Amino acid sequence: MNIELGPLQPEPFMLALGLTLFFLVMWTLGHGLLPRIERVKAERWDATEGRTERAEAVRAEAEAAHDAGRQELAQARHEASRIRQEYAEQGAAAVADARAEGIRDRDRLVSASHTRIAADRAEAADRLRQDVGELAVTLAGRVVGEPVHTVAADRRTVDRFFDSH
Questions:
Q1: At residue 36, what are phi and psi to the nearest 5 degrees?
Q2: Cβ-Cβ contacts under 8 Å for 157 (sequence gap 6 or more)
Q3: What contacts 159, CB < 8 A, 6 or more positions away?
Q4: Which mean pLDDT values do the consecutive 10-residue runs of the chain (165 residues) have?
Q5: CA distance 123 to 116
């Protein structure tokens, strides 16, 4: 099979040299230039798409932290509410105890005051009887014109008068 290509017919040496140089250039490109091209391409991707992905990851992490903070804040509010309620109940109990103690003290003071008033009233009534009796005897002595102290004392007239009224 001898095809006549004319001027396009390569010489075998030139064909072998061309193929050798072609494979050498391809090998140099494959081992030297293409890895650099891939690395630059990866750096560019990292600079554009990679940053976006990292930003999304950071945003998701921030949202998770925000949600955790919100949840922690809700728990803290719940705890504060529970503590306020507890202290409000303790305060109400303290007020009730103080009120009960105040009522006991008031009742004790009122009772002591009533006792003292009753004693003072009895003492005042006795003193008034004595004073009224003395005035009545003195007045009777002036009306009669002679002293009636001995007669009133012997008969106990004033005491009988007050006992009957």
A1: -65, -40
A2: 151
A3: 129, 133
A4: 70 89 92 89 84 88 95 96 96 95 95 94 88 79 71 61 67
A5: 10
